[in-house]
Amino acid sequence: MIRPALVVTVLVIVTALAGCSFEPEEKIWEISGPVFGTQYHIDVVLTDDPDQLETLSSGISDILDSIDASMSTWRPDSELSRFNNADDQSQWFPVSEPFYEVLAAAQEISEFSQGAFDITVGPVVNLWGFGPEARPNQVPEPSLLENRLQSIGYEKLELRSDPDSVRALSRQYLDLSAIAKGYAVDAVAAYLSEIGVEAYLVEIGGEVRVHGRKPNGEAWRLAIESPVDQKRQISRVVALESRAMATSGDYRNYYESAGKRYSHTINPETGRPIEHNLASVTVIADTTMRADALATAFNVMGYERANALAVRENIAVYFIIRGEQEFEVHYTPAFSSYLTK
Ligand code: ADP
Ligand code: MG
User: Fold this and answer.
1) What predicted TM-score, i.e. pTM, was given to this entire model?
2) Which end of the chain has less Cβ packing within 10 Å, N or C?
3) Dihedral angle sign, alpha carbons of residues 60, 61, 64, 70
């Protein structure tokens, strides 16, 4: 979820050393801070040059600030909130290029997933207490839920390029929380590549993108967590080079009411938090935005439907399923090449 960014603190530590004494040493430098109500962690491989690091840190926080200022539901002055509160949404509403890019990608994933992913689900998210509206302490009233469900739907949104704009056929309230983090990771990655950083890892709230290799020549290694509530436990490790990975799971962000667990991922068909035995879905893709949105889409679809679609489309997906006794793991053929021994 996207909340106002706090003042960004930059923590710089040297985490690894490599290279021989005749060349400038390459090191991994870590830059991190709070963003969108979560944290970002960035590893950049650089030779020893602290000046460049300062430029990088401020460049990164400028990018993240501008995405937050555009796509946050928590900020009343964001581009997103201005559209959500527009007097007449049936009029074309001009949007920035990044905002348009995210809307277009969201719509594509909605079609691809037959509506499992849907950014118009915002009013229902809020009703269950996961948005900027106050968190209710009970399950929503059925008629209110039905009412909100009737009015939503990605097909009620229209996009137009040149000039980039959006409009809605009926009143909508958009929520970009399931795609904007991924977009932000890609934007930071593009910036790093542009200024000549050849190897990096960018992570925001569990959505990751890597490029190049570590100073010791190894691929970046990323852990897929086991979906246990309290402690951090690794299910598998993947090795990636120039790829993105995102996970959607019900084990970190949920609330309990009368002993029942409610996920923050909503099935737009029923208007209810997803309730199946899929504990987490991890997707590897070319862009983090796509991986992020697909992970949520597959999570909504449930294992059977999601697996069939992912296999058919050759998408790399790793499913963790709550079995009777323990977790079961399934992955698509496209995923296997990323698994380390
Ligand atoms: P996860 O990584 O667990 O999927 P995200 O933060 O990426 O978590 O996305 C979850 C958020 O997306 C929810 O808090 C809600 O704001 C929004 N959301 C919930 N259900 C859907 C859906 N079906 N389609 C698109 N966005 C959704
Ligand atoms: Mg996500």
Assistant:
1) 0.90
2) C
3) negative
